[in-house]
Amino acid sequence: MSTKEQNNEFVEQEEQNLADTIQEEANETTLNEEEVEQGNLEAEQLKKQLEEANNKLLRVQADYDNFRKRTQREKEELAKYASAKLVENLLPAVDNFDRALSVAAESGDYVALAKGLDMIFRQLMSTMEAEGLTVMNAVGTPFNPEFHQAVMTVETDEYEEGIVVEELQKGYMLKDKVIRPAMVKVSG
């Protein structure tokens, strides 16, 4: 084989190699374009999912805000009318006070007024006790600053030191909470 033939064969071989390389690159480019297109589709799907998630989050936040506002309104309304039942239960005693004062003013019978006031007091205390009010009995018990307010100490042979000897003002508890401590004299 001559040099020229060798050169021609070499050139043909190189042209074929170059053509193969170009074809491979074209295939890779096509592959890359397909991958890019696939990536674009995936990106669009992810954008849609993100948008849906954001919308869901906004709805949940709005629902929570509405729930919080509704709960606050209900709490305020409950506090506003919490004493309605107690007031309703006290109205008969108020009516009886009104009647007793009217009758006493017309008749001038103050003995009957005193009896009527005693009956109204018992009715009022019965209503309060039904709501959980109890009177503290302090006389003869050891002084306790959680239940008693000492206003003075007195010397006495009748009680040991630190014992309540006299109650100047009654103390009251509502269920298990002191709402007014008893004002007392304590032995010293």
TrEMBL record:
Q: Mark out the compositionally biased spans (Acidic residues).
A: 11-37
Q: SUPFAM superfamilies this protein is in?
A: Coiled-coil domain of nucleotide exchange factor GrpE, Head domain of nucleotide exchange factor GrpE
The record's subcellular locations are:
Cytoplasm
Q: Which InterPro entries match?
A: GrpE, GrpE_CC, GrpE_head
Pfam families listed in its UniProt record: GrpE
Please name the Gene3D superfamilies in this protein's record.
3.90.20.20, Head domain of nucleotide exchange factor GrpE (2.30.22.10)
Arranged from A to Z, the UniProt key words for this protein are: Chaperone, Cytoplasm, Stress response
Start and end residues of each stretch annotated as Disordered:
1-39
Please state which protein family the record places this protein in.
Answer: Belongs to the GrpE family.
Assembly behavior: Homodimer.
Output the NCBIfam families linked to this UniProt entry.
PRK14140.1
Functional summary from the UniProt entry: Participates actively in the response to hyperosmotic and heat shock by preventing the aggregation of stress-denatured proteins, in association with DnaK and GrpE. It is the nucleotide exchange factor for DnaK and may function as a thermosensor. Unfolded proteins bind initially to DnaJ; upon interaction with the DnaJ-bound protein, DnaK hydrolyzes its bound ATP, resulting in the formation of a stable complex. GrpE releases ADP from DnaK; ATP binding to DnaK triggers the release of the substrate protein, thus completing the reaction cycle.
Instruction: Tell me what this protein is called.
Output: Protein GrpE
**What's the source species for this entry?**
Paenibacillus septentrionalis
